[in-house]
Structures are given as structure tokens and as C-alpha cells.
Write a structure and sequence with these properties.
Helix content: 25-40%
Strand content: 25-35%
Number of domains: 2
CATH superfamily of the largest domain: Vaccinia Virus protein VP39
Distance between the termini: 49 Å
CATH class of the largest domain: Alpha Beta
Number of helices: 11
Radius of gyration: 19 Å
CATH architecture of the largest domain: 3-Layer(aba) Sandwich
CATH topology of the largest domain: Rossmann fold
Shape: globular
Oligomer: single chain
Length: 307
């Protein structure tokens, strides 16, 4: 099946806002080429001083945002929406599109996914890379395939950093909309006794199971299910996370109080700042109060407790 690759070129000052608009079209399958802080990133993340000449030749004042759209999602309409929305927001841009085969879509972005330190305890490593020295961090190997969750997106990184504070040895963890399984795997690496991930996407479930195996995790400690939150999950969990999108959080949150242990935390992320009030109203209606609020790049992660 042929997909449409859309490439948005913007000034680096507009990268975050343009990426948020791109996520309105597809909340998955985007990657960003932004070399504005290449030297700093090479020192702080990759711990190297020598940089490939091809990378050094990249433009530093512009960023490229790539997204992929399947034929049934009307690529022409999506491109028109992007151009209109970027223009309405006053973001100068160039939007180009071309056709790629599904295999290219699935593999093109891999060259941009490199080992990444997250928080104080984790190192996210793509399955096709190796890390010689993790500097005491737990290495989380992952191949997201077509499921959301590499750790590089602000929403996922915010949740991973938050989990470091709330996962306690032996605790039970519930991951709503598990995607690639990255949060459930991280919870286990951080010391959780069990992690249950649930998703309505069969492909995500398959990917999450495979990623668990990459990290030596299998049932019953690491359990991934295809199903509905309210119907297919039972028990009480001291830590529940939902790194999805605002509308899904609003729709699923009413089922969460029955699954949350006393004094437990419900961590929600994937919320663009313009939807904050909508989500807050829904959380309040479900009996939750926000105990912590974290923000990066226009995306929010909130830690909630029952009132």
C-alpha cells in the first residue's frame, strides 16, 4: 500500500507549534529534523565532539517535519488542512508531499532515532543500536514499528520522567493506550512488580508484546492486552498512566477511579496546551484533582489524585 509523505519546512522558532499542528492530522508517525542545537546535543546526549560532515552541512535555521498519511485518510485534504492552519497561525512554511511505499514509511525514520537519556534512570535505545556504556542507567530497548512511543516525543518523555518519581518496588502499574509498550517496560525497569498495558489497536498490542520480549519481559509480570478499559481490566493499581490524546483521556477517565488504588496516582499526558481546560473539566467531573503539572514544548503531563 502506498502512503503519502508530507514534509513541512519551517523556521526553527516555529518547530513546536508546527509539530503540534501536524499532530492534529496524525498523532503518530511524525519525526522532526532540527539541527539548531546539533553541537550541544552531540556533547550532552551522544557524548561526542566529532560530528559527521553531512550533519554539519544541515541548515540550522529551518526544521523539517515529516508525517505519513495512509490513502484512506485522504492525504490531499490533510495537506490542504496543514497549509490552511499554518497560514492561519502566521507560520511561514513550505508543505510538500510525495508517495512512498509502506516499507519505506516503516523504516525511513529509523536513522533519526538514536539512544536517548531520559530522566535520571533510563536510557532509551532503538533495537538496531547498541550502547557500550549506559553510565548506570537502565537500558530500555525498543522498536516502535507503527505504534506510538519512542521516548523522544515530549509527551512520552514527560511521563517517563514522572514515573521515576512514582514507581515503587513491587507496585502494580496500568498503562492505558499502551502503544509501543514503552511506559509498561519502563515501569518494570524502574522496579514495578507487574505492568498491564491495554490498547484497542491490534498492531500496537503486537508491537508492545515484541518490545517486552526485547527487554526480557513476559507475562505475568508484563501483560499486554487488546481490549476495552472498562470491560477488560480489573483490580486496583497504585499507578495508572494514559499517554494518549485529550479526547481519549476525556472519554476513558470515568472508568479510572474504580481501578485506582487508595492514595494512587493517575498520570495523564498527550495533551496539547490548548486542550488543557477541556481535560481539567473532565478530570474534575471524574473526581480528580491535579497534584502536579508538567509542561514542555506546548504539551502537558498532569499527575492526578482523587479528591
Amino acid at each position: 500500500m502506498d502512503w503519502t509523505e508530507v514534509c513541512i519546512r519551517v523556521a526553527t522558532a516555529h518547530t513546536d507549534e508546527a509539530a503540534a499542528i501536524a499532530n492534529m492530522v496524525v498523532p503518530y508517525g511524525i519525526y522532526i529534523e532540527d539541527y539548531s542545537d546539533l553541537e550541544q546535543g552531540a556533547r550532552e546526549i551522544a557524548h561526542i565532539d566529532l560530528i559527521d560532515e553531512e550533519l554539519l552541512a544541515k541548515a540550522r535555521d529551518t526544521a523539517l517535519i515529516h508525517l505519513y498519511i495512509s490513502p484512506e485518510e485522504n492525504p490531499a485534504e490533510a495537506v490542504a488542512f496543514l497549509r490552511e492552519r499554518l497560514s492561519a497561525c502566521g507560520i511561514p512554511s513550505e508543505v510538500d508531499s510525495n508517495t512512498v511505499c509502506e516499507e519505506d514509511w516503516a523504516n525511513n525514520w529509523k536513522k533519526y532515532f538514536k539512544p536517548l537519556n531520559v530522566g535520571e534512570k533510563l536510557l532509551i535505545c532503538p533495537s538496531w543500536e547498541t550502547v557500550e556504556d549506559a553510565a548506570g542507567r537502565a537500558v530500555l530497548s525498543i522498536d516502535p514499528g507503527m505504534a506510538f512511543g519512542t521516548g523522544g516525543h515530549d509527551t512520552t518523555r514527560l511521563v517517563l520522567e514522572t514515573l521515576e518519581q512514582y514507581i515503587t518496588p513491587g507496585c502494580e502499574f496500568l498503562d492505558i493506550g499502551c502503544g509501543s509498550g514503552i511506559l509498561s517496560i519502563a515501569a518494570c525497569l524502574l522496579g514495578a512488580g507487574t505492568a498491564l498495558g491495554i490498547d484497542i489497536d491490534a498492531l500496537a498490542v503486537k508491537t508492545a508484546i515484541e518490545n517486552g520480549q526485547l527487554n526480557g519481559l513476559t507475562p505475568p509480570r508484563y501483560d499486554i492486552r487488546l481490549g476495552d478499559l472498562a470491560r477488560d481490566v480489573s483490580g486496583k493499581y497504585p499507578v495508572i498512566a494514559a499517554n494518549i490524546v485529550a479526547d481519549a483521556i476525556i472519554a476513558l477517565s470515568p472508568a479510572v477511579p474504580a481501578l485506582l488504588a487508595e492514595d494512587g496516582v493517575y498520570i495523564v499526558s498527550g495533551i496539547i496546551d490548548t486542550r488543557e481546560q477541556d481535560v481539567l473539566a473532565a478530570l474534575d467531573a471524574c473526581g480528580f484533582a491535579v497534584a502536579e503539572r508538567h509542561e514542555h514544548g506546548g504539551w502537558l503531563c498532569m499527575v492526578c489524585r482523587t479528591k
